[in-house]
C-alpha cells in the first residue's frame, strides 16, 4: 500500500475529504505550518499522527522547508498532498518531491493563481469558476494540470457563496485524483500530467443555462 502525507494550514476540510474517502493508501501523517490549525485535531481524532512545524520559528523559507522536508522524509511517503497549505515552497523543496507533490487550488487555473481566488473571479466577471488539482512545480500554481471541476457563478454570488460551491467540488475532485495516483495510474511525464485509462467526458456546462 502506498503511503501519503497531507500538509495543511487551517480548517482541513479537504484533508477530511481525503481521510474519509477510503483511499487505497495509508495516510502516515498530517503536518501543519500553523500550530493552531483546526485540521490537526480532526486528523488526530481519526488516529492519524499529527505534527506542527511553526514557520515563524525559522529565520528563512529555506530553513523552514528543510525542517519540513526532514519531517516528511521520516514518514517515507510515496505522495505528498497540499490541502489548504498556505506557505509558498522553495524550489529545492519542490524539486525534492517532483512528481509526487500535488495541490488543490480554488480556481480554474491558469486563471487566478495565488490567494483570494473567489474575489478575483467575481471581480473578473467570469461565468464559470472552480478548482484545479495540479502537480506542484516551482512556478506558483503553475504546475501541470491533472483535473478540474467547474461551477457556475451566479448573479447574486458573493465570496462566501461562491467559495462554498467550489469547496463542494474540491471535496469530490481531490480524493478522486489522489486515488488515481495511489493506484499508479497518474504520473508526471515530460512536464505533462498523464492518466492511464482516461475516460472522455461528455457535454458542456453553459452559464447562464440556455432557456
Ligand atoms: N509552492 C510552489 N513552489 N509552487 C506551488 O504551486 C505552490 C507552492 C506552495 C503552495 C498552494 C497555493 C494555492 O493553492 C501552493 C502552491 C500560498 C500562497 C501564498 O501566497 C500562494 C499560493 C498557494 C499557497 N502564501 C503566502 C506566503 O508568503 C502566505 C499567505 C498566507 O499565509 O495567507 O507564503 O493557492
Ligand atoms: C480550500 O478552498 C483550498 O482549495 C484553498 O484553501 C481552502 C482550504 O480549506 N487553498 C488555497 O487557497 C491554497 N492557497 P480547507 O483547509 O478546509 O481544506
Task: Tell me what the structure shows.
- This protein is α/β, with parallel strands linked by helices and 211 residues long.
- It has a domain of 136 residues: Formyl transferase, N-terminal domain (Rossmann fold).
- It is 32% helix and 24% strand.
- It is built from six helices and nine strands; from the N terminus they run E-H-E-H-E-H-E-H-E-H-E-E-H-E-E.
- A seven-stranded mixed β-sheet has the order 3-2-1-4-5-6-7, with helices on one face. It has a two-stranded antiparallel sheet with strand order 8-9.
- Strand 2, helix 2 and strand 3 form a beta-alpha-beta unit.
- Helix 1 runs parallel beside helix 6.
Low-confidence region ranges: none
Indicate the proportion of strand residues.
15-25%
Name of the CATH class of the domain at 2-104 and 132-144 and 173-192: Alpha Beta
Small-molecule binders: ligand NHR, glycinamide ribonucleotide
CATH architecture of the domain at 2-104 and 132-144 and 173-192: 3-Layer(aba) Sandwich
Cα-based radius of gyration, to the nearest Å: 17 Å
Q: What is the structural class?
A: alpha/beta
Strand sequence of the main sheet, in spatial order?
3-2-1-4-5-6-7
Helix content: 25-40%
Order of helices and strands: EHEHEHEHEHEEHEE
Write down the CATH topology of the domain at 2-104 and 132-144 and 173-192: Rossmann fold
The name of the CATH superfamily of the domain at 2-104 and 132-144 and 173-192 reads: Formyl transferase, N-terminal domain
Instruction: Label the overall shape.
Output: globular
Main beta sheet: strand number and arrangement? 7 strands, mixed
The residue-averaged pLDDT reads: 98
Gap between N and C termini: 49 Å
Discrete helix count: 6
What is the number of beta strands? 9
